[in-house]
Amino acid sequence: MDCDALTLSTMTISSPGLLPTETLLDSLVHISNEVVSIEKLPFVQMRNVSSMIRRIKLLSSLFEEIQEAETPLPPSSTLCFTELLSVITRGKVLIQEIKDASTLWGLIQLEFISNQFYVLVKEMGRALDILPLRLLNITADIREQVDLLHKQAKRAELTIDPRELQRREMLLEVMANNMMQNKKNKGYMDFGKMEELLSSIGLRTISDYDIEISKLEIEAQNQAGTGGLVVVSNINNLISLVSYSKSMIFRDGENEESKKESCSYLYNKVNDSSSSSQSMSIPDEFRCPISLDLMRDPVIVSSGHTYDRNSIAQWINSGHHTCPKSGQRLIHTALIPNYALKSLVQQWCYDNNVPLNEPNSSVSEEKSNKKNSNDGAIDHISANKAGADAVKMTAEFLVGKLATGSADTQRQAAYELRLLAKTGMDNRRIIAEVGAIPFLVTLLGSHDPRIQEHAVTAMFNLSIYDNNKVLLMSAGAVDKIVQVLEQGRTMEARENAAATIFSLSMLDDCKVQIGARPRAVPALVLLLKEGTPIGKRDAATALFNLAVYNPNKSIIVSSGAVDVLIELLMDDKASITDDALSVLALLLGCSQGLKEIRNSRELVPLLIDLLRFGSVKGKENSITLLLGLCKEETEVVARRLLANPRSVPSLQSLAAHGSLRARRKADALLRLLNRCCSQPHHSL
């Protein structure tokens, strides 16, 4: 793979200028590790996705070895790495888009998406054309593997999984039959075949079906302006198909046991309510999803869904611990009153002369001329929308109490928002949309310990939704959160403030803004000293996230984090050894951090012990620290290692049986020690 003039002339530079070598390698290692750490693969394009991850994992070993060697790179390799950065970045985006998009629509677009992977692999091969492997300071194993990867990329062909093709053909056949039935008779569909198809692509629970329907609705909106009427019609056909299949499959109770119980219970309740129905029509949003009767006392369960109190209480008291509508496990059984919905129900009852205090008198909207047995099936789509509307009304009501209520009312409202934001991305989005964030930020300064604790915990739950991170930063929440982190009125409030900073720092822009706050990092270090084991872990993970941004490393070191982290390595009760090692390994990358770590007399013996008894991640970070110290002060650290009889056997064991990354670094450290021993004044 020597540099070739013709290849160079045909290369496409993806960026207007080349990054500095150090920055380029940092970016490559970071983006490669993000791709390699992807765990749950999508149900479509699984072969192409896993193949792309495998290629990038191999390249990440090359990048890390070159980064550790710290030798100048030939110009052509810089050009190659710039191209590879573009390819890997686009590969990551493509994989994430497949995971986030509708699985069924991914099946329809099978060839189009497969071709995108094919293009990326070919670009990877063209980039490797100009990589001068013989000029790079890398091991023979890595050189051989990269050379093999290059040959495979050059020979690569368009890959489409035959099993996915078969599923797509089955789907198209069912779609065609569905359209014919819509035009003729809607009575027959092979639901066994449909359930088998949907199960093969990961749709196995009611929640899976709801998520797929939501993704299809988003896709329909995206395609409305560009995809044309045919495309939108096909997506709507899919939505209809999945919705109808869901109601029929789960109504028949042919799935897992919890779904059988839910659907059986719902079916019995529907029959009970139908037998006592009246002629008046109840709005769908006022109906209990269990009984289909009017919700006279609506309450919210932990999944975010609203039910009539009597119906959901009977469900829970009969031994069930899941949400009847979603199948999601209830994390608690508290029933939160839905005051906003209850007010609307009372108004409707007054306008229509319906008695509010007769829970046994139910009304129904069934038409007298409907005799088909399918008429009793539940409309899950309208129920979902009704649930979202109920969450919105509840959130608006609670925000109003935050704004104008007494301290007791604010405490209760903040607590209910905290619970409501704990489950479901839709809940978190809706709560932010109705304007809760500014009021929660204000309540962080409350003198009431519980109000402060509920407010900061609600903000942590809201921050899990990425768009809310931006809203929280815009609302000036960071300074208030840091204040709670420093001087929170309860330890739980301080811990949840640290967890909120960790969540916010997932975004790169937030890392910069939080690091620029002079009190943020010292407050995290203080919690690292004083907190409970949970608080220490929250603080350590937040510091790790912030340290990914290089300028923050010196701030963390100057705040005294190194000594505290080393002390935590010796604290068995803290149980955050791996988290502390991860932060120390990052701080090794700045001169101040290296100096502080080098000055510790206790660290090297601790790291040697961790090479033997630590976790896989702990061993990797321990060897990273030892190797970094050895490169800076080879003779001093080598003497301390060689003086410990456990060090060399531990390194040899790690070089033979450790993870790929640990083996590579253990080999490098053993070579350094061997070189040190071979010098005359170090002969053994």
Automatic annotation (TrEMBL):
Positions of the UniProt region annotated as Disordered: 358-379
GO molecular function: ubiquitin protein ligase activity
EC numbers: 2.3.2.27
Any Pfam family: U-box
Keyword field contains Repeat: yes
ARM repeat windows: 435-477, 519-561
Composition bias type Basic and acidic residues, residue spans: 364-373
Transmembrane parts of this sequence: none
Gene3D superfamilies: Leucine-rich Repeat Variant, Zinc/RING finger domain, C3HC4 (zinc finger)
InterPro entries linked: ARM-like, ARM-type_fold, ARM_PUB, Armadillo, PUB12-19-like_N, RING-Ubox_PUB, Ubox_domain, Znf_RING/FYVE/PHD
Catalyzed chemical reaction(s): S-ubiquitinyl-[E2 ubiquitin-conjugating enzyme]-L-cysteine + [acceptor protein]-L-lysine = [E2 ubiquitin-conjugating enzyme]-L-cysteine + N(6)-ubiquitinyl-[acceptor protein]-L-lysine
Keywords, comma-separated and alphabetical: Repeat, Transferase, Ubl conjugation pathway
Pathway annotation: Protein modification; protein ubiquitination
Domain (U-box): residue spans on this chain: 281-355
Superkingdom in the source lineage: Eukaryota
PANTHER family the record matches: U BOX DOMAIN-CONTAINING, U-BOX DOMAIN-CONTAINING PROTEIN 1
Protein's name according to its UniProt entry: RING-type E3 ubiquitin transferase
Native organism taxonomy: Eukaryota, Viridiplantae, Streptophyta, Embryophyta, Tracheophyta
